[in-house]
Amino acid sequence: MATAFTHAFVAASLGKAAYPQKMPWKFWALAVFCSVAPDLDVGLHYYGVQYGDPWGHRGMTHSLFFAAIMSLVLVTVILYKQAKPLSHKWLGYVVFFFLLTASHGFLDAFTDGGLGVAFFAPFDNERYFMPWRPIEVSPLGVRDIFTNYFAKVLLSELLFICLPTVVFSGLVYCLRKIFSPKQSVQAKST
User: Concatenated DSSP letters for 132-182?
Assistant: First the structure.
């Protein structure tokens, strides 16, 4: 898996790219939560759920189905004041938070360890990886944070996740500046 830090960084960067205007704190909290929530399945190990089980790590909570249900429920319940259900704004939020939640599984599928990701659970519990896996898999426990291996993990995430995310967000920012409607000279002077 990629680290929680990197998943949160992706959420913040893509959130700013998609919504450059000032957003309420609930939006940012929800963005970070959606990006890291799939890893809550790690806690199920303490209740006897095995890694390869449908609810094990990288199973159901990493699926596209889970991302869809979670984004629908969270946007409807938490952002109901900002977006009326079934409105265009609501749909935009649902799609955005779906993509953030789904990004977690996709980033994990680019790592070099584990069993893969059950993208299509509960309909298909097979685990998948991407054909190219350049990201070092992060250890599950916090005791391994201050090790040389963890530094290697962070470096691979910096190169293969953070850097491309910054480039993408910067490109979106530049395109928005280039193609945004220009204010007239008169409107600026008044």
Answer: ---BPPPPSSGGGTTSHHHHHHHHHHIIIIIHHHHHHHHHHHHHHHHHSPP
Query: Where exactly are the structural domains of the chain?
Result: 4-189
Can you tell me the distance from the alpha carbon of 124 to that of 118, in angstroms, rounded to the nearest whole number? Answer: 7
Please list, residue by residue across 128-144, b when 16 or more beta carbons sit within 10 angstroms of its beta carbon and e when fewer do: ebeeeeebbbbbeeeee
pLDDT for 185 = 47
The pLDDT averaged over each successive group of 10 residues in the chain (190 residues) is 89 94 94 96 93 95 98 95 93 97 96 94 97 89 79 94 96 90 56
Tokens standing for residue 139? 């250890």
Cβ neighbours around 181 below 10 Å, total: 5
